[in-house]
Design a protein that fits this description.
By secondary structure, the protein is an all-alpha fold. The protein has one domain. Helices cover about 80% and strands about 0% of the residues. The radius of gyration is 27 Å and the shape is rod-shaped. This is Transmembrane protein. Keywords: Membrane, Transmembrane, Transmembrane helix. It comes from Streptomyces vinaceusdrappus.
Length: about 160
Amino acid sequence: MGESEQTRPDTATDAATIRNEFALERYRYLLQQIQTVNENAHRFLAIYQTLATALVTAALALFVGYRKWELAASTARGGVIGLLTLATVVAAFTGTLIVVGALAWLDYRNEECDITDEIVGPGFRTRPRPGNFFRWYETYVVLFILVSVITMWVLAAVFLLPAMR
């Protein structure tokens, strides 16, 4: 006739088990993404430092060698400004990537808190507070990039460009 109560699968228990397994896999994925976002900030800073150093070195080489290479001073000034502009673009791109990474981190952490609130219990993980940005190392990386770009331009405007007349 029909299945007995003991042999029929308990669909509520199966659904809960599947839901918990799915939540666990999602939680693992979120933790992996958070780790990746954290690592990316260091990679972006290393890329910025490498490119900025190369571009500023090229600008200094142009400043030192433009007479020997028989370049007009206006051409050399244009080259220095172009190289510093390129360094600024690299800085802006790097800063943007770091800010977007921080926003992604906030999103992943909030989703992590949603999962733990639902599966473990409310308040298991404290939600991140954007007001604590002064404690995030990304804030200081972006500030470093900003200060270094401003310093490059000020030094060029005060020392290099006036000397290339």
